[in-house]
Design a protein that fits this description.
heterotrimer; A mainly alpha (about 350); B mainly alpha (about 160); C mainly alpha (about 120); A: about 350 residues; mainly alpha; 15 helices; C: about 120 residues; 3 helices
């Protein structure tokens, strides 16, 4: 193997070395579990590092967009700000309202974070650099992420606070409405590829699907932004109306878990958009995982830009956008893709 | 299902499913019941995975744990006294009789059915095969589902409209 | 296939321990650093500084339910279209017609909902 091959397939190569060394001393199942744990630690390490980097970058970028400096006191360029935040979050007082349902109040953040971690199983960083390439990859991703709503509801209901409950009910109604165009917009990609596996989807993209599926891409991007509850769709924490929505009554680490989960989801959506529409890890010269990260961070910058530019929608406008605009577009996209594939096949490809 | 690891996992998932199902029935707080129900749905999805039905597992999560659970939660939010449940229910005895009859029917059905066991190896990818079956042999049920869905939608609109 | 789902199982255990571990660390820090100093005012439900009025566990408008029902209907529709999409390239024209009929029937319901203003959040 040339050094270039090793750099190019870095993670599969290292994984092969480790599992080779382990399997000479341990039974098969132990190697399996250890390799899984190494993979999970790697992925979570990436997600948490990305999380910290994004918190910093978001505050700096938004600061610049609003013609102010952003955090610049802790460390050079404020780079140590995320660490300072982490310490602060851990040393806050834990406050649980007297009238809250204590158990559900605790379960809320927990149940919200679990799906955000689970979905990482099928994110393809590069060929062979994926925790598990499930046959139902993209559907697994959709199914798991739909579970996070339960956590939102538990947080809202468990707090026994009017703003919390109102915020979580509104958010659920919004996310649920945008889930439909989101799920439908992916069908075009699936029809072209003929498989649900994330790796197959990337391998099929000799041309990035953004070219073949422009409509699907736009619908997915808008719907996914709304699913993330990010600006301009951030009705859940419309400060002027419902304080902080479902996390009004949370403090310290419990509060931070909602943020961690939201940034995990943001990274996830960026990875899905990259995988489905932007050619995944594929690109010239650079190693595949580098391309993947570059594409994710470009999308992240795009989300920042949206947040810095657009004002918040009203909830009735939001619902109308989902049901009266995105849903018909997504259905139209399925028809057009179906016709396109037929035409393609009729032409003899 | 001969692998001992699979047997252990199966009993673990089944235990979670059954305990969650008991929780649904036994708790008085209907919000807790809804939460337990999500646990049951997730457990059933796990059992589907063990049966090599990966597509069904994803559907179970997406439609039941994701969508039906939300529907039930929103239905709960329209009711009163979510924490205590209904205190005096004059239909307690009819409900009990119906439940016993239902149990008898289910037990009878389970014990009387001859469960076919396929000797073929499980499919590696189930989704494509399902698609072909749905669009060829089972095309009528496939289209009828859509009629059913429209009926459900129209029914909901008629009931919930204010005017 | 089951071996590929084993990773998901292990990840599920990690995913469960991750938030619980974080919260336990937090509660431990609270205990060790003696951060918890509750007082009655601090533990009241937040309502912009006023004493909370009435119960928070109120009844919600039926429109939430209506939207949830529309969601379930379209979710089931979308899920049924996934096997169609996976098999589509190997099935050809008649699969397209079948999909068109399937979505067409649902479009009737959709247009009805639009016409009855059920898609409006008011």
């Amino acid at each position: 193997m040339s050094p270039w091959d090793i750099i190019y397939n870095f993670f599969p190569y290292i994984g092969g070395l480790i599992s080779g060394a382990l399997s000479s001393v341990l039974p098969g199942w132990a190697v399996y579990v250890i390799m899984a744990l190494i993979g999970i630690i790697g992925i979570l390490g990436f997600a948490i590092t990305g999380n910290l980097a994004m918190v910093w970058a978001e505050r700096r970028i938004i600061g610049r967009m609003q013609v102010r400096l952003g955090p610049n006191r802790v460390g050079p360029f404020g780079l140590l700000q995320p660490i300072a935040d982490a310490i602060k979050v851990l040393t806050k007082e834990d406050i649980v309202p007297r009238k809250a349902d204590k158990l559900l109040h605790f379960l809320g953040p927990t149940a919200f974070l679990i799906p955000a971690v689970l979905a990482w199983a099928v994110v393809p960083f590069a060929d062979g650099t994926i925790l598990t390439d499930l046959n139902i990859g993209i559907l697994y991703m959709l199914a798991v992420s739909s579970l996070s709503l339960i956590g939102l509801f538990l947080a809202g209901w468990g707090s026994n606070n009017k703003y919390s409950l109102l915020g979580s009910m509104r958010t659920i109604a919004q996310v649920v409405s945008y889930e439909i165009p989101m799920v439908l917009s992916i069908l075009g990609v699936v029809a072209i590829v003929g498989s649900l596996s994330m790796v197959d989807i990337v391998k099929a993209q000799n041309i990035p699907f953004i070219v073949l599926q422009p409509l699907g891409f736009i619908v997915y991007l808008i719907a996914a932004t709304a699913e993330l509850n990010r600006s301009p769709f951030d009705t859940l924490e419309a400060e002027s109306e419902i304080v902080a929505g479902y996390f009004t009554e949370y403090s310290g680490m419990k509060f931070a878990i909602f943020y961690i989960a939201e940034y995990f989801n943001l990274l996830l959506v960026a990875s899905i958009v990259t995988t489905l529409f932007l050619g995944g890890w594929r690109g010239p010269f650079l190693p595949p995982y580098i391309w993947f990260v570059i594409k994710i961070f470009l999308l992240f910058f795009f989300f920042m830009w949206l947040r810095g530019t657009l004002p918040r929608f009203r909830i009735d406008q939001l619902m109308a956008l989902a049901w009266k605009f995105l849903l018909p577009l997504a259905l139209l996209n399925i028809f057009l893709t179906g016709l396109g594939i037929l035409a393609w096949q009729a032409l003899g490809f | 299902m001969s692998d001992p690891v699979l047997v252990v996992v199966f009993y673990l998932i089944s235990a979670i499913t059954v305990v969650a199902a008991l929780g649904v029935v036994l708790t008085r707080n209907i919000v807790y019941a809804a939460v337990f129900l999500v646990g049951t749905f997730a457990g059933v999805a796990g059992i589907f995975v063990l049966l090599n039905a990966d597509f069904l597992a994803a559907v179970q999560l997406l439609v039941y744990a994701g969508a039906i659970a939300i529907l039930i939660i929103f239905a709960i939010m329209m009711t009163r006294d979510t924490r205590k449940g209904s205190r005096s229910n004059e239909q307690r005895w009819p409900a009990f009789i119906m439940a016993v009859l239902m149990l008898a029917v289910l037990l009878g059905g389970i014990s009387q059915t001859i469960w076919p066991v396929s000797v073929l190896a499980p499919l590696e990818t189930t989704t494509e095969k399902l698609g072909k079956l749905l669009l060829n042999e089972y095309i009528l049920p496939f289209e009828v589902v859509s009629v059913l869905l429209v009926a459900a939608m129209i029914g909901a609109i008629v009931i919930s409209r204010e005017d | 296939m089951l071996s590929s789902f084993g990773y998901v199982g292990i990840l599920a255990i990690v995913a469960l321990l991750f938030p619980i571990g974080a919260i336990i660390t937090f509660l431990l820090a609270n205990y060790l650093l003696k951060l918890r100093r509750p007082n009655p005012a601090k533990l009241t439900t937040y309502e912009c500084g006023m004493d909370p009025i009435g119960d928070s566990w109120i009844r919600f408008n039926t429109r939430y339910y209506l939207f949830a029902l529309l969601f379930v209907v379209f979710d089931v529709e979308a899920v049924l279209l996934y096997p169609w999409a996976v098999a589509y390239r190997r099935l050809g024209l008649y699969a397209f017609v079948e999909m068109a009929i399937f979505i067409g029937i649902l479009l009737i319901g959709y247009l009805y909902a639009w016409n009855k203003k059920a898609l409006e959040w008011k």
